[in-house]
Write a structure and sequence with these properties.
Number of strands: 12
Structural class: alpha+beta
Order of helices and strands: HHHEEHEEHEEHEEEEHEEH
Number of domains: 1
Radius of gyration: 19 Å
Strand content: 15-25%
Number of helices: 8
Largest sheet: 7 strands, mixed
CATH architecture: Alpha-Beta Complex
CATH superfamily: Oxidoreductase, molybdopterin-binding domain
Bound molecules: ligand MTE, molybdenum atom
Shape: globular
Distance between the termini: 35 Å
Helix content: 10-25%
CATH topology: Sulfite Oxidase, Chain A, domain 2
Length: 304
């Protein structure tokens, strides 16, 4: 199956390390456009001026937020290696036709894993570009059979104190929880990632499977998921529970709405070096064309 979102990339995204992935994506994108399509046609006007390029494997796997393994940026790489990720099952419950405990390999058997190179913007105002391998969340929800009265999807991360030194601290109320509105969850940009650079996703990045919602601040992209619940009520989410004034349910990337303690207008690209200029943060992290319609008529300064 072709990558429908190849057009979120520019030619400038291609680095030697990622070149093989990009070439395959561009070929797939061109094929999807049909005989009249061109490779150039898969580059969006919005991105064509950007000088983005994917971060290196070392940057992506060495600078992380995963508080179950500690609050320092290098704690997850240091401490997450001990996490047992096989076997792994995900409980899917709530408003679904087929609730149950699904072995991960059964749940995703037959579903398409795609390469998606996405911007990733943490609420702390740093960013990366990450070449994920993942499955559209919608495809996974279809296995469970979402009922028509469901309005939200709630997610929970594993809590395993014997392997997660960070959960001894009360820095968050475990399990780590996140949630999306159903239209956000079934949007084609929303994926469940199982890989990076074509390799299994490392533990510190959320093995064996984590959410990626590229137009929202990074904390929405919950790691190492063990439970997915369909519900008709807005779910509780960890950072909103910890500080509702600073972290809302939506948490869409928005350069025009500052965090109460810092500006969100610009960001520091990891790997750019000590003297690199900060970059302008893009509305919806650069995915405005794809997602803005979901928030039509909403006051984005109110619904943070
Ligand atoms: N379970 C869990 N998921 C989590 C976090 C966490 O602490 N625990 N941190 C979030 C935050 S703040 C960010 S920025 C991203 C970081 O993802 P990365 O380490 O793969 O870059 O993971 C998010 N998902
Ligand atoms: Mo974050």
């Amino acid at each position: 199956m072709a990558n429908r979102w190849t057009n979120t990339l520019s030619w400038n995204d291609v680095t030697p390390e990622a070149a093989f992935l990009n070439r395959r994506q561009l070929i797939a994108g061109a094929a999807a456009l049909g005989a009249a399509g061109s490779i150039a046609g898969s580059v969006s006007a919005q991105d064509s001026g950007d000088a983005l390029e994917p971060n290196t494997w070392e940057e992506i796997t060495g600078y992380n937020n995963y508080y179950e393994f500690g609050t320092g940026k290098e704690d997850p790489a240091r401490n997450a290696g001990q996490l047992t990720t096989q076997p792994w099952s995900i409980k899917i419950d709530g408003m679904v036709d087929n609730p149950g405990d699904y072995a991960l390999e059964d749940l995703i058997a037959g579903l398409t894993v795609e390469e998606r190179i996405y911007r990733f913007r943490c609420v702390e105002a740093w960013s990366m570009v990450i070449p994920w391998n993942g499955i559209e969340l919608k495809d996974i929800l279809d296995v469970a059979g979402v009922q028509s009265d469901a309005k939200y999807v709630a997610f929970e991360t594993l809590v395993r104190p014997s392997e997660m030194p960070g959960v001894a601290s009360r820095v968050l109320d475990w399990p780590y929880r996140e949630g999306l509105r159903l239209d956000e969850a079934t949007h084609p940009l929303t994926i469940m990632a199982t890989g990076i650079y074509g390799r299994d996703i490392p533990n510190q990045n959320g093995a064996p499977i984590r959410l990626v919602v590229p137009w929202k601040y990074g904390f929405k992209s919950i790691k190492s998921i063990v439970r997915i619940t369909l519900t008709d009520e807005e779910p509780q989410t960890s950072w909103n529970m910890a500080n509702a004034r600073e972290y809302g349910f939506f948490s869409n990337v928005n350069p025009n709405v500052d965090h109460p303690r810092w500006s969100q207008a610009t960001e520091r690209r990891i790997g750019g070096g000590l003297f690199a200029a900060r970059q302008d943060t893009l509305m919806f992290n650069g995915y405005e064309d794809e997602v803005a319609a979901m928030y039509d008529g909403m006051d984005l300064a109110e619904f943070i």
